[in-house]
Structure formats: C-alpha cells, structure tokens
Amino acid sequence: MNIPLSDYLMLSAFLFAIGLCGALSRKNAIIVLIGIEIMFNAGILNLMAFWHYKYFATPTAYVFAIFAISIAAAESAVGLALVIAVYRFYKSVTLDEMTSLKG
Amino acid sequence: MGHTEYLQQLAQQQWLIPIFPLAAAAIQSLLKRPTRKLSAALTIIAMGLSCVFALRAFFATIDGGEHHEVERAVFNFTWFKFGTTSLDIGFVLDPLTAGMAAMVAFVGFWIFVNATGYMAEDENFTRFFCFLSLFAASMLALVISNNLLLLYICWELVGLCSYLLIGFWYFKPSAAAAMKKAFITTRIGDVGFFLGILMLYWKTGTLNLYTHDALHPGALEQVSALALRNGWWGLSAASTIAFLLFIGAMGKSAQFPLHVWLPDAMEGPTPVSALIHAATMVAAGVFMVGRMYPLFTAEPGSWVLDFVMWIGCITAVFSATIAVAQFDIKRVLAYSTCSQLGFMVMALGAGSLVAGQFHLLTHAFFKALLFLGSGCVIIGTHHEQDMRKMGGLRKYMPITFVCYVIGMLALSGFPLTAGFFSKDEILLATFHRNKLAWSLGTFAAFLTAFYMTRQIFMVFFGRWRGGDGDRERSQDDKGHDDQGHDHEHHEPHEVSWNMWLPIAVLSVFALFMGWVGTPWYGGNVFHHYLAPEEVASEHSDMVLWLSIGVGLLGILLGWLTYGRKTMEHATDKDPLSAALGSLFTFLNRKWYIDELYDVTIIRFTTTCGVFFRLVDKLVVDGILHAIAWTAWGISQVFRWLGDEFIINGGFDAGCEGVQLGGEELSKLENGRVQNYFRVLSLGAAILLLIYFFT
Questions:
Q1: Which domain holds residue A63?
Q2: CA-nearest residue of chain A to B664?
C-alpha cells in the first residue's frame, strides 16, 4: 500500500497540536512535560516523513532521529528532576502557583 | 691613556659623587619606617662612597705635574629640547671643583658621624638624616655643575634643605621664625642671581660655563666679548652680570646687609650649623663667585670688584664686632662665620681668587670643628647654650677642650695653623689693592682673636657655673637620692667617641692644612694648583708681622679681660660690658639691625600689605561684587523662566511617563510560565500566517 506524504504530515501536525494544547492548557507540570514530549515526537515524525519521500538513498536522517530522541530523553530527565525540585519547594506541581518570576 | 683623557673620563663620571647621598635620601624617605641604625648607616656609607669618588677626582687633578694653565675637563649633554633650542647641563672637573667637592664630602662625612651622637636622643632621627643626605647630594651637585641652570637648581635645593633643617624642631616658634627668615632673606639675593642668569643667557645664548668647543663657546669662554658689550649702569655686560650674580652670593653667603638670617639659623641642630651654616652651604656663594670669576675680572677698572671687596670688608668688621658681645656659644660662632665669609669675599674683591678659595677650604675645616665642638659642649652640659652658665669644662671634657682650642687658634690666625696662612694671604691681597680695606680687615682679625679667646675662657676655664640655679634643689635632693643620680645629671661629662672622633680628625686638618698654601718652599702649592695664571701678591713682611701681631694681641687682650679673673657666677656682668658700657649693649643687640629692618622694610611691606588689602576690599571686591550680583540677577530670571518651567517641567513629565509605562508593562510579567508560552505560540502562529498569505 502506498501512503502519501501528506498523511504523515497531517498526523505530525495533529500530534503537534495535541502536544501544544496539552502544554498550554494543563495546570499540572507533569502533563505539560508530556505535551512537550508529544510535540517533540511530532517533529521527529515530520523529519522521518520528509526523509522517506525525498532522500531515501542516504541514511542521514536516522542518525538525526536517534540523536533527537536521546536528547529528548535527556531533556525529559532534566525536566522531571526540575519538577521534583519544584515540588519539594512548593509542595505542589501546579504551574499557576509558581509565580516567583513575576516582575 | 693620557692624563687628559683620564680627566675627561672622570668628568663624565662626576655624577657618581652626588648620586650616593641622593639615593640614601630617596631610600630613607620611601621606606615606611626606617630604623635609626639603618638610616644612619645608609647616610654615612653613602657619604663615604661620595668621599671616595670626590677624592679620586681630587687626586687626579693634582697629578697634572707641571702646568701653567688650569687643566679642565668638561662633560655636557642635552637635558631637553624645545623647538630648535636645546637646554644643556653638564659637569666640570677642574681644581676649583675637585678641591671643593673633596672638602664637602670629607667634612660632611665626619659631621654625619658626629650627628649620630648629637641626635641620638631625638625622636625624628631618620627624618634628620634623610634631609642631611639630600643636602649633601645637592651641595655636591652644585659644586660639580658646569652649567648655571644646574647650579641654580642645586642652589635652591640647598636653600630648601637649609630651610627644612633650620626648622627641624619646627614646634619651637623661634625655629619656625628662623626658617622663614632664612628662606626669605636668601630669596631676596636669589632674585639678583636669577636676573644675572637671564641676562647671561640673553647675552651669550648659553648657560654652559665651559664647552671646549669653538663653534658653541660656553659663557665663560665668551667673557672677552662680553666685556666689550654694553650692560646697565654704565658697566659692560660682563660686569653687570657679575654684579647681579654677586647679589645672589650676598644672600647665600650672608653678606651685609643680607646677613641677618645666618645667626638665626643657629636654631637648627648643631651638626646642621656645622655642615650647612659654616662649612658648606654658606660657602656656596663664595664658591659661585669663584666659579664665575672670569666675569668679575673681565672688565678692567669696573667698580664691581671694589663693590665686592667693600661688602666683604664691611661684613668682616661688622660681624666681628657683634660676635664680641654675644653670650650664646653658637651665636658667637655664627657671627664669626659671617665675618670669615666677609674675609673670603673681600679677598675675591681684592682680585685674588686663590686667597678667597684657600680661606674657604681651611675655614670649612676649623669652623666645622668649632661648631661640632660646640655641639659636644651642648650635649656635655645637657643642652646649655649660654656661655655664662658654662665654665670649667676643661676638667670635665678634656678631648673636646683640646680640639676646641686648636680650632680657636686656627680661627684666630695663630702662627702656623691653617687660618694663619689663609688669612695672611687675604690681608696681603687686600693690602695691595686698598690700604683702608686692609686696615679694617686687620682690625677684624684682631677682633676674631679676641672673641675666640673670650669664648674659650668663658666656656672651658674657671668654675662650673651651670649648677648655680639648681644648686639648692640639688642639695635638698641629695639626702634621699640613693644613687646620687640627680647630682650626676647636672655635672657636665665628656661625649661619646662618635662625637669626639670627628673633631679630633678635623683638628688635625685645622693644624696642618695651611701648609699647602705657604709661600716658603718653592712657591705656593695651592696657588699653583688652583690658578697658576693668577699673579701672586708680592710678599710684604710688614703685613705678615702685623697680622701675627694683631692675632697675638687679640689673644692677650682676651686673656687679660677674661682669663686672669674668670666669672664666678652666671649672673655676673661681662667684664667687657663694664668697660664699654652702652656700646656693649649696642653690639649685643647686633647694631639693632633686626629692629631697623622691623621699622623700615618690614613696616613698609606691612603698610603696603594693609593698603593693598584695602584697595582689594574696596575697589577690586566692589567691581567683583557688582559683576557677581548682576550675574546672579540674570541667572534668577533664567532659573524661574527657563529652568523651573521648561526644562524641569518637561523632564519631570517625561520621567513620569516612562515610569507609568514601566508599571503597566511590568504587569505582563506575572511569572506564569504558561502565559509566556502562550504568547510565544501566538507569535509563532502569526508569523506562520504571514508566511502563508504573503
């Protein structure tokens, strides 16, 4: 079967929108983190789709994808550590309560 | 290497002589807290090194062998340039310089050694030695300079050091007054000196004295041309410059009528009096005249030399009469110094450079000896300076006594001592020039012998009168003073070795130094060394015997008046005052010269000051105030109109706007991360839309 490029791109955009919605609207820091991860993966999917249809002959994009996934893993580890640190300080993970950056 | 090249090389190295004391002064002033030992050691070692180099140069100039002209090596270099004019400075090495530098370094060295004893108990020991080093450096640089500019710089530097050292105990009002007096009085002379320098530069275009270069001759190599050009007051240019320079020498060498500062300079510590106000600095004026002597003799028959001679003659007699009636041991010596400087100046005026410089050198040795001796006496008697409260010190201070007597004999011109030969030469030179000046000089020589004998008998013979005032208290204390300490404290005592050693060394010179200037064996050695081209004065037996006679007569009269029956009590009247009556008071008050200056020059200056202050207050201040008030009025208008309304108002409004805007904007910064994120996403979306639809 032959799936056209636009399907992949639509899926990627859909995933990105879901992730953005989650990151912007939810109050729980962990959910926000999950949303960011979904956006990340949408980006990677986009990359792989373009590779598949345009530059299939070369394996470069695999390398990029693996790099991006490992960086995303590292980033989420840092992010979770931050969430834990924030929880210890505020006894909460609700983002609305964290306003110490207020000018 | 030939002798001339060797001299040339030494002239190039002349700067080595003053550099050591200068470095010592610099180190001491820069160290945060120099210790006494360090500072004394630095000063003395530096002076010793200077002495070595000065003696090396001195012996090099002696070794010249047979010569009929002065051998002179110079080294000039450019100090700085402006435009096409360059200012040179340089060093000279000739017998005049070498002899003087060797004397200054040698006498200075022994005075420094003595000073370690005299100042041992002073709080500001290190400051004292720092100033002394600086003084020695400037004096040595003055002596070696081949340039009037360098000479003038050092001239002022020694003046400054003299000022600082006279006022060393500045917390004493008398010392503070004396330092100002010395500085201002010598400044009056320096005005003349400075005018002379300017005129010399104007007429010759150079301040170098010797260059040995036909293309750019030094000032003293142009004197024959200068003597033909016109100057002021009907003199030739050479004589005018000489006259102006001599005014400077009058201030520095304390010649009448600018002599008033020197006796007051005795407020300084005694080693300072010995070094600066007897042996070296006051001789700088005489030395400078000797240095510039070709200018003085350039024009035959000008009145400048006569003027010099009469100033010297008047000073010699005048100061000697004052010295007769003083009671302070140092003041007697101070007036004696004035008088001896007068002798030197008189010799120069009489046309004999050799006699003047010879007396300068011998005098430096025995006057330094006398001053250091008086310093020993002052320390030995626990800071007593009044001769009436001394007496009988011969028994307590034998070494000082012997040295002091040698100095006194040399100063009195006792046959075969140093002062005898030099004074005799001066009188001989004056005899051939002017009989009246010669008779006055002989009279001054008689007075010299008399007042020195008076001093010896008052200080060293008779009964110890120092305890007179304390006697009763001392006797009361004796009963309950176990160690007898209090009694011991009032007794005079001999001084420590570092104080008597210098005077012992100097007294050897005071005895034997004159022998280099005797006319007896194969001509006058000193004359041949210093100025072989000068015509020697014809020998005269009458002058010789008369000068011996007045010297001995002075000593004899001194013994008759003070020696036969010494003073019994400190409150006794001076035997001379009984004989002379009110004349004695007149002399004791120094001819009322200070009082005369008070009511004439100082009163005049003060009146001028008051007058100009009034002018200042009424006229100048009035105009000034009017201008100020007008300006103030105008500024008020501008203040209300322009400043308050436009500038201040506008500025304030702008500031408030910015502040309000800031407050509004700061509300956006609510610290909610998701808000920021939302705005970010919105922005990205807008950018995307723009991208798509354009």
A1: 5-97
A2: A103
